[in-house]
Amino acid sequence: MKRLDARLFVLGNNLLLLGFGLVLFALQRSAAQIVSSIGAAIAVELLFSVRKLRAAPDVRALVKDRVLSASVAGVSLLILLRSTEPWFYPAVAALAITSKYVLRTPRGHLFNPTNFAIVAALALVPDSLQVRPDQFSSSPWLMVMTVAFGVAATSVGAVWRCTAGYYATVLLVGLPVGTLLLHVKPLWILVPELNTSTLIFAFLMITDPRTTPRGHRSQLLFGGLVALVHLWMRSQQLVYSPFIALFVVTALRSAKTPGRPE
Amino acid sequence: MKGSLLRWQGPAVAALFLGLIVGMGRLRAGGGSVYERPPSAEILAASPFAFHERSREVGLAASHRYYFPNPDTKSYLPLMSIPPSISVVDVDEDGWMDVYFVRPHPEQPNLFFHNDHGVSFQETGRALGLDDMPKQDPGSMAFFADFDRDGHTDVMLSRMGCHTYLVWNEARRRFERSSSFERYCSNPKMVNVIDFDRDGWLDVVFGNYYPDVDLRTYLPLAHVFGQSGVRSGGRTEIMFGSATGFHHPPPARFAALHALQAHTTAVGIHDFDDDGWPDLFLSDDYYYDALFRNVDGKDAVNATHLMPYVEHGFSGMNSDWADFDNSGRMSLYVTNMYVPPFATTKNILWKWNGSSFSNVAGQAGVGRCGWAWGAKFADFDDDGALDLFVINGKARGLGVHDRSDATRSFSFVRNTLASTPPELRFRLALYPDFNRYVQSGFERSCLFWNHDGHFEDVSASAGIDDLEEGQAIALIDWDNDGRVDLLVGNNGGPLLAYHNETPRHGHWLGLALVGPSHARDALGARATVQLASGKRLLREKNPGNGYRGQNDPRLHFGLGEDASPVGVDVTWPDGMREHFGDVATDRYVTLEQGSGERR
Description:
- The structure holds 2 protein chains of 2 kinds.
- In chain A, 69% of the residues lie in helices and 2% in strands.
- By secondary structure, chain A is mostly helical.
- Chain A has a two-stranded antiparallel ribbon with strand order 1-2.
- In chain A, strand 1 and strand 2 (108-109) form a beta hairpin.
- Helix content of chain B is 10%, strand content 34%.
- By secondary structure, chain B is mainly β.
- The chains are: A mainly alpha, B mainly beta.
């Protein structure tokens, strides 16, 4: 039986979140924003793939692969960021895909495209966005759904150890250090790690097979390091901690082993 | 060499972006500026404004104490405190505007300041029956108008609880509770008044923020730490006036208005579509703001689709309509939270083009002013262009008296908790002690000077530099000198009275519009002044627009250099149009319906 592409689970989960958000949780996204975000991602992806497409033996398969990849970024940005500017979503979606083709080594791209676009937007146009996907973050049903899709995606992609490393670090390092040394309530440490946006992050973003290590121990270490940076930032009341933590750890890792071969 | 460069491109990009983020102060609360770009030195030098805070000198010294009815809210109580409100009214019709200050705390009586010829104020609340002691429920706002059409001003005192309607008893020279108001209890942050169905009786719009709960036992965790998109607030309701008192409309009517159930903070009134029926705009917290079109006074249909949904701030606090660009059409100013990095929802200036609204706040330069609350347009320098005053700030823990006392950010906690499951979020055990926390505290207000069609924030040079938690604004010209003064009600702070002492100001005209005996207040009346230069200035009499303030009921026009008598066109609430010619300027003039030239 042909194995399913792990990205399908990511896309499926995020499309459902987008749909539930629009219908049930007053998620502020217009049709123009949705179309332009996904459309820009696909267009830029195909533009950068022109040479490969010309040489590809199976053009249709390659196009499908690129469209799927771009759609994941386009939809993820729609649910993780909020902006009222009409240009914002197509711009960050284009930036996300561009990063894949510009910031790379012969072995592959360096950053998770969605993560890169979020951090880049925070650095370049901070006044045009909000990272606050709390419309659907407090629904237990959507949390369960995200975990289910996340388990499926990380299992198929063989990257579940990144997520395991992340949560193990929260439990084994964050909890005792926070309660014993920083005198923080245990629930205050654990509860924010369970909301939908963190679950998306821990299951579907830090597990991008292109930008995470392949080895089992390396994956555990990778997830753990992301969690450590994130927890330290939270203790300092610094915002955007998950995205910046992943960005920093990925960047450092790329210096050591710059990307997997494609 | 090339391999080495490739190896370090990731860290290099990360360092660049993180440097930018940290450099702009975007990682921590209070790191970045919450204001518009500061004006140039030339503009500051040209700015004409001079305000002086004179509350003590004129006898308006008063303060508001933090109060939230449920003691279980403990240390985060200040964050949920019921703010004060201010009403400006000339109760004794002596031509000098008096001030009523509503204070919700059970130990703080409401205060009525009688204006003694613009020189000083005397507090006479108790003698007039307006001290509201002992308090059954905390007051939220007061609106003065002649509700019973007896020729005397009455007052609707709304509460977080059951509301009170007081009528003027001429024989006893005091306000007394009227039995003509049926028992109606709700939790409005603001009320506004208009003759919605044009039957000659004034109607009251209750913008209910909280649902129908007893706030003495209510833990507001569901919304304070709630997610965007919640609609667990109160229903906005209209109580219709009649000869037999106030009553609810039949249940089948106003279904769309009642179904909204957002956390409504402000109710703005204006007939935006010029069909002769006053429409309603609701500023909502956590949800889309809402525009309701009045359908012949019998219903209100949702017309929010005329305002692009993606532009709504989800933290609407204020709604003031004004013709800021002298285009002959009124625009709407809605304040929001601008608390980077946690919230970047800026204030909105909705401009109506006859078929839809577009947000022009960014290009006008009025998008940012911290965590903004009340805002009012007025021509503070009488140059013929409306300026804008915005107040802001949000409460701090009881242990925070100075900026340096605040050790933690409430916004960080709030944003973290907002995205947690309600089953956990509603456990008080989860919450830290907010005593030393602060949330948008110590922000100065914004005074936007309308300078050649663009607004510039010149508050610091204008003498408005307090760092209190401003909530309520009321415009007043307490000494009748033609320069609009400002009253600011602060949460957990003093009542501030900014006296406008702008030295270089233009000519002006003040209009007291008086309707016929059965509708003296003429709420909703519209006046247009035609200047010799051809410029037309439009004002509408809706003194309750804004946030938690009833403004000076007189319409104020700055005329610039033009001192010659002007023509005034008035559209009265019942649709009658009249022209008043050769109206003298630099004074207050009373225009009575029926005394002009009918058009």
